[in-house]
Amino acid sequence: MTAGRRESSDPDPHRVDAVTREARAYEKVRPLHERFTQRLEVLIRDLLVQRGIAVSLVTSRCKPVDSFSEKIQRGNKHYMDPLREVTDLAGTRVICYYSEDVDAVSDLISREFRVDKANSIDKSATLDPDRFGYLSVHFVVQLNEARAGLLEWKEFDGLKAEIQVRTLLQHAWAEIDHKLLYKTEKDIPSPVRRQLFRVSALLEMGDKEFSEVRKLTEIAERQYTESISKGDLNVDINLNSVMLYASQSLSVKALVELSLAEGFRPYPSKRSVSTDDSGARELVAVAGILKFRKLADLDDIIRKEASSQSILRAIAQHLNSRGAKAPFALPCDLILMVLVATSHGSDVEIYDRSHFSSDIIHALKEVAEEKR
Known about the structure:
Elements (H helix, E strand, L loop, with lengths): L12 H39 L5 E6 L2 H8 L9 H4 L4 E7 L2 H14 E3 L5 E2 H4 L10 E7 L1 H4 L12 E7 H12 L10 H40 L9 H10 L1 H12 L16 H12 L5 H14 L1 H12 L9 H12 L5 H5 L5 H14 L1
Parallel strand pairs: 2-6
Antiparallel strand pairs: 1-2, 3-5, 4-5, 5-6
Helix pairs in contact: 1-2, 8-9, 9-11, 10-12, 11-14, 12-14, 13-16, 14-16
């Protein structure tokens, strides 16, 4: 090698100096991007709640300085103004349960932000059918004009962020894909490539099957609701039917009012009875142990209790005699108490299935013994 000449693989000192300058410049403004990242995550969470879109996870991160430096010196792209051109200094990821939720979240983002369409990408639209990969949607966004004009958002006006939207299965693929050593598809040995094709296809099929399960569940819930509203309780006992019955049945409503009159505590108003399924799961399990099959079987016992008032009153009296707190008037819990006491506590597994406190279980056993 001739003295004074650099090998072509040696780093360009001018480029190194430029990267160092840009990294230092980013380090100075990174606190602003970090605040933007945090506020963006909170905003997206709030928007999802307002739209009634339930998701698995919302996470965010502000790009570290070393990641910024590494990105701007990659050979596949030349940045003239990195702080403006790098679009993922702030990043948020929304992990959805179902593929149709990805569409709903994408619609929300399009409505609530200014989307940079030139830099945004829907990988499901760009991936060839004979290629494997995770299908997610990447948005590059800025605050819309209305929000950017608000005092609390004004400092973030003009900043860009990347929002990724994908399903749980797509996220699983992406996480595993990051662990693989292959940078391009050409690097992958043929046997491995074939296996990855199969995995990718299975994950995509899994998303479709989960969506189908959701549709069937919604159809079943509509049928249960219609039957219960008509008083037709010849409906199989399962988690969905029991939760709908507990929230809609007039018999259960009467049971709740009875329990309150006997000193049971009102359920905290900030929580939703209809979505609290812990008691419903136990109720379904105990009903199975006792060979109850239809909601009508439960309803018969509940109406008898509503007319006699004996079980809940006895439970309240036993708890009071022990100086124990009265339980909350949760519909499924009340049904379960009546069911256990009516069964005379014949199966110890019934108590094992219960989430009740030791005081309530003791009261239930005493009442069950009196009913023998």
